[in-house]
Amino acid sequence: MRAGMVAAIAALALVAGPSAAQQGPPPPLPLGDVRAPEVDERTLANGARLLVVPRGEVPFVTVNVVVPGGTAADPAGREGTATFVARLINRGTGSRDFAELASVLDRRGISMAAAAAEEWSTVSLNATTPALDVGLEVLAEVLVDATFPEDQVELTRTQARTGLQVQASRADALADLTFLKLVYGDHPYGRQPSGASVSAIARDDLVAYHDRWYRPDGAIIVVAGDVEPDDVAARLNDALAGWRPGPQPTLDFARAPDREQPEFVVVHRPGAVQAEIRIGHLLMGGEVEGWEELVVANQVLGGGPPGRLQQVLRNALGYTYDARSSVTRLRRLGLFRIVTATRPELAGAAVGEVFEQVERLRTRALPEGELADKVSYLVGSFPRSIETPQQVAGSITEQRLIGLSDETLERYRPRLAEVDTAAVRAAAETHIRPEQFLVVVSGDASVLQPQLRAFGEVRIVDADGAPLTLADLNAAPERFDLSALAPDTLVYDVLVGGVRRGSATRTLEAVDEGWRFASVIEAGVQRIEQAMVVDQAMRMVSSSTLVAALAGDQTIAVDRRGDHLVGERRAGEPPTPIDLEVPEGVTLSDGIELALWASPLEVGREIRLPVVDLAEGAVQTVVLRVEERTDLTIGAGTFDTFRVSVGGDDPQTYYVLAEGPHIAVRMESASRPIALELIAPPALAQR
Predict the structure, then answer these.
(1) How far apart, in whole angstroms, are the C-alpha atoms of residue 249 and residue 209?
(2) With contact defined as beta carbons under 8 Å apart, do 450 and 180 qualify?
(3) Closest by Cα among 290, 236, 300 to 49
(4) Strand 220-225 with 263-268, pairing
């Protein structure tokens, strides 16, 4: 497809291209006027502020209803409540269930969504002009009479847990999460949901939050599109007559951290093959003097292609695929942030280069040509951000919520065009402060800490933010005793999207060395056979794997020789030799099940296993965490189980018997609709 596209463009250029005498691109057209939208402002009968932006080019209307609160209003210990409310607000009302609401909207091409930001939540409606009244009717229902059905609450909880599990397995997400927590400190902007807080959220919490914060007094309703102010105000007064004001709560904001020197934090991910780097600090919120100059300075550094960070870190040094920076302003606090990633052994050099590029921006004159390129891009691209009713509504909403003046949009483009090199340098020197940088790097701390130590003191934390020491990184491996196990055969259904697509058999049998744990999975035309031999302490002796598929067979076989796994991988000819140094206690993915079978478990227990991927030649530490004790009902019956989260590159959830041996009843992927469910054999039924 790409080759065809290139060929088509090339042919077009031959027909309609410039003459050979023309050199370079044509000169730009004169800068046209971009006027800010006219805003009609009034107050509805229920006290809500209404902002109307008539845009009659197309028969389409966007309505944003913004209420205060947001994630900053989450109850302590129930972080995630505001997000739950936003996700569930249109999942059922006193008049219609989720299916009925969805049907009403879908038949008329209406879309409705909600989201929670730091200090406010937004319910958005997009409809064609003829469907607006129906859309407003549904909007009123969810604002006044959302019911938060229990089954939808549980579904959302499951999705949230899965999201957190996936997040904990990704170095980039861990770096982002840790950076936001630390840069904001106790300030509510930094509050993030956790597995514990998501589990603690009850339906009553959602109802209470909705009743408290989703009120018209304090709300802003922005309508943009094919409407007239008087008409849409009358429609809204009629539709929202049942949305009544109540006591308006307030938020308390703790002071954000005031750093006087750079802070360096490593989020330890043992064996990680990449280091994710986040660098930045807080900015002033609201109306910032010199904001346009700061936007240009950020564009020079890394706000757009190709910024200096990209040119140096990627193009010149080859440290990374991507490096960028951003400036964000919110009502109370803004944020300056740099995002990049590199190989672990280059992390220190990459951080040092970031500091160097920031210092250049703050202390050296900006070349006129570079300034002209960046300003031209910003000025030329701005009109595209306020073309559609959705964009206009979003811009007006953001402007009011941040506390900006009505003239901000109209002034923005001309002020960008007037920025000079001295002003850009002054803005960078004033607003970008390396002495206050927070530097968060997610990766293997044993590799990263020695490099970052050259810049100052380095703190090491785990994925949950708990402090670690260098001694912790070299902690002794988990110890296991398999002597109490008994031979067994377990049979599972392989489910894809809830539909049976195959079967899996797990067999544990005694051998001279200790135990042989074998697995056979058949799904469609594919068959996977794996066998691992371990001693009574679960130390690997050998393993073999066969993957049989239409494309051909692949085999991997290794033996343990001291601290190496030695063998070969065959996928055609010739075979690829394997000689991989591994840590003590290393296992394969199937060893996760054995570890759970043989370990004493209780809620909160964590087991850390080094797991090797022989095909990739990589070892990562997988964390097994017992999250809760719960009854699980599947086709084979109802079982008393522990729910265990399994980290790593492919996060999973295991439900294992609460009474030992802790055999897996259900195993499911966190990122794909694949699961294994136990078909109870006689041996299990007799336990």
Answers:
(1) 11
(2) no
(3) 236
(4) unpaired
Spatial separation of the C-alpha atoms in residues 159 and 522, rounded to whole Å: 28
Question: How far, in Å, are 56, 62, 375, 575 from residue 391 at the CA level?
Answer: 14, 9, 22, 57
More confident residue, 627 or 31: 627
Alpha carbon of 245 to those of 49, 79, 211, 213, 215: distances in Å?
Answer: 12, 26, 10, 10, 6
Cα angle: 566, vertex 541, 554; to 5 degrees = 55
* CA distance linking residue 196 with residue 219, whole number of Å: 31
User: 287 is written with which tokens?
Assistant: 């109306």
What are the φ and ψ backbone dihedral angles of 615, each rounded to 5 degrees? -65, -35
Please report which confidence band the pLDDT of residue 150 belongs to, taking 50, 70 and 90 as the band edges.
Answer: very high
Among 243-247, 476-480, 568-572, top mean pLDDT goes to 243-247
Phi-psi region of 561 (alpha: psi -120 to 50; beta: other; left: phi over 0): beta
Say how far apart CA 452 and CA 438 lie, in whole Å. 12
H or E segment to which residue 232 belongs? helix 229-239
Across 549-559, average pLDDT: 85
CB 219 within 8 A of CB 49: yes
CB proximity list for 669: less than 8 A, separation 6 or greater: 650, 651, 652, 675
Find the DSSP H helices in 130-202. 132-145, 150-169, 171-184, 195-200
pTM: 0.73
Q: Quick check: 559 pLDDT over 90?
A: yes
Asked whether the beta carbons of 314 and 321 are under 8 A apart, the reply is yes
Q: Using CA atoms, how far apart are residues 221 and 248, in angstroms rounded to an integer? A: 17
The contacts of residue 654 (CB under 8 Å, 6+ apart) are: 592, 593, 596, 624, 643, 644, 646, 664, 666, 667
| Number of Cβ atoms within 10 Å of the Cβ of 221 | 24
Nearest 5°: phi and psi at 450? -60, -35
Q: Cα dihedral sign for 283, 287, 293, 299?
A: positive
Distance CA 269, CA 265 (A): 13
Tokens in use for 254?
């703790």
